[in-house]
Amino acid sequence: MRNFIVACCLLPLLLNAQVPNVKSKPVRSIYLMPDLMSLNYTDPKHNEAWAPKAGIGLGVQLKLAINKHLFLRVGAGYGLKGYRNREVGLRLGSNINPTVGFVTESKIDTKGVFHEFQLPLAFQYDFKADNLFIAIGADLVGQQGHTTKRQILYGDGTFDQSTFENKSQWNTVPTISMGYTFPVNEHYDLSIAPSIRIYGKEWILQDTKLYNYGIKLLLDYKP
To answer: Is the backbone of residue 213 left (phi > 0), alpha (psi -120 to 50) or beta?
Structure first.
């Protein structure tokens, strides 16, 4: 992951060296991204079911020209994210009948809401025709500490509730999006891009990874 970030930082320098005469004023942008967050177990032993939770991200960006079709987008933003995950098919002590063995199954429901600060960096390639583009990069994200709620639903109908704290941390979130740009007028463009973001570090539960997907809306102002 570190090598990926270094490559992202060095690529503009290499490309600018190849195209020294590109002159373009930075394009200023605001973005809004409604999305759905999911939590996925990386350990195949878990039997889990997830329920996507709605979230949102918003911020500002600069779009810097590297050459005629390639651009670097950098910026800063904020995200409000929610998550919910359920482990199913668990066999605990309360699920055992001394005579016949396991007769019921238990479930664990985990959910919470957290805030994050986003420093997005992405390379955008504009195709020649139809205003199509693709953007690939990584967000440096400051995930803020919060409380996770957990409920154990036993097979006999009883349940236990508990909470635990997640400490703040920095995370690297690779992103990819592909979209279409609609010219509004001489100075403004509106872009719509389905996007996927995958969080590099586990955070909420051991052997889990967060990922989200949504629609990124960008309003570009061209001086």
So the answer is: beta
Question: Under a CB-based contact definition with an 8 Å cutoff, are residues 177 and 196 in contact?
Answer: yes
Q: Any idea what DSSP says for residue 95?
A: G
Question: Which amino acid would we find at residue 146?
Answer: H
Amino acid at 130: D
For residue 44, give every residue at least 6 positions away whose Cβ sits within 8 Å of its Cβ, in sequence order, or none. none
Residue 165 neighbours by CB under 8 Å, 6+ apart: 145, 146, 147, 148
Q: How far is Cα 184 from Cα 189, in angstroms, rounded to an integer? A: 5
Q: What's the rounded Cα separation, in Å, for the pair 24 and 11?
A: 18
Residue type for position 198: I
How confident is the prediction along the chain (223 residues), in pLDDT tens digits per residue? 555 444 454 444 444 444 444 457 899 999 999 999 987 777 766 566 677 889 999 999 999 999 888 999 999 999 999 988 877 766 665 656 656 555 667 778 888 899 999 999 999 999 976 699 999 999 999 999 999 998 888 877 778 898 988 899 999 999 999 999 999 998 999 999 999 999 999 888 777 888 999 999 999 998 8
